[in-house]
Amino acid sequence: MSDDNPLISNIKPIIPKDHPFDPSAFSLSFLRILRMNWSKVLKKNLAINESSTEASFLGEFFDGLSSPCLLIPANDSLGKPQSVYFHLSNQLGTNLIDLSLGGTNKYGQTEERSEWQNFDLKVIESYIPALFDSLNSGLKPFLKKNIILAQVPIQTNSQLIKSANLKEIVFLLDWEVNVDGISGKFCLCLGSGFFG
After folding, report:
1. Which of 99, 107, 169, 185 could bridge to 192 as Cys pair (CB 3.0-4.6 Å)?
2. What are the backbone angles phi and psi of residue 185, rounded to the nearest 5°?
3. Which tens digit of pLDDT belongs to each residue from 16-27?
4. Domain 23-195 = CATH 3.40.50.720
5. Cβ neighbours of residue 113 under 8 Å, at least 6 residues apart?
6. What tens digit of pLDDT does each residue of 65-120 get?
7. Contact assessment for residue 185 and residue 91, using Cβ atoms and an 8 Å cutoff
8. Spatial separation of the C-alpha atoms in residues 73 and 124, rounded to whole Å
9. Model confidence band, residue 14 (pLDDT cutoffs 50, 70, 90)
């Protein structure tokens, strides 16, 4: 994102205490389903551990993305963009590709990509349906309306997201995936207004 972000980094947003979203309860449900789904895709057992949960601004989320990034925006079932994004770290994306291609990674982490090729993105795409299946199941108890989220194509440049409200307050949930001795993080960004 540009350097003229109007947000002040030392100001932290406050989520109202009566907000309907419970990050801890959501995380338990989401991870339970995702572990099963990704284990089927990988044909390996894996562990996913919660790293952190915090409130932030959408602009700060975009500023913290890697370059190139693996950003997966979401639309609702009517095709309307939502302030919901998955971000896979470059390390996780690289390792998922290596595992999918039969790599054993006995000697440590594979080298991260400096850019993403179409083939890389196609491999990573095979993991995305499980993310959204788990997301929709985990969110259901917290939504007033029956909203089904669907992925849009992976973005490798966050500056392509032009309609975002950078001042929107968001929940940021981070997790770490561990499989076959390798690891990588991913993040879910949920706009607080999405639950209204």
Report:
1. 169
2. -105, 155
3. 778 888 888 999
4. no
5. 68, 90, 93, 94, 120
6. 888 899 999 998 888 888 899 999 998 998 888 888 876 554 444 566 778 999 99
7. yes
8. 14
9. confident
Residue pointed to by tokens 């209204």: 196
Mean pLDDT of the chain: 84
| Alpha-carbon torsion (183, 185, 186, 192), positive or negative | positive
Tokens 């639309």 — which residue? Answer: 75
Mean pLDDT confidence for 128-147: 89
**What is residue 165's three-state secondary structure?**
coil
Convert 63-101 into a string of H (helix), E (strand) and C (coil): HCCCCCCEEEEEEECCCCEEEEEEEECHHHHHHHHHHHC
Residue carrying the six token digits 């440590």: 108
Distances (CA, A) of 80 to 73, 74, 148: 11, 9, 11
Cβ-contact 48, 177 below 8 angstroms: yes
DSSP of 15-49: --TT-S--HHHHHHHHHHHHHHHHHHHHTS--EEE
Which two three-digit tokens encode residue 109?
């982490």
Tokens of 195: 């639950």
When pLDDT is averaged across residues 171-180 and rounded to a whole number, the result is 91
Structure tokens at 99: 């595992």
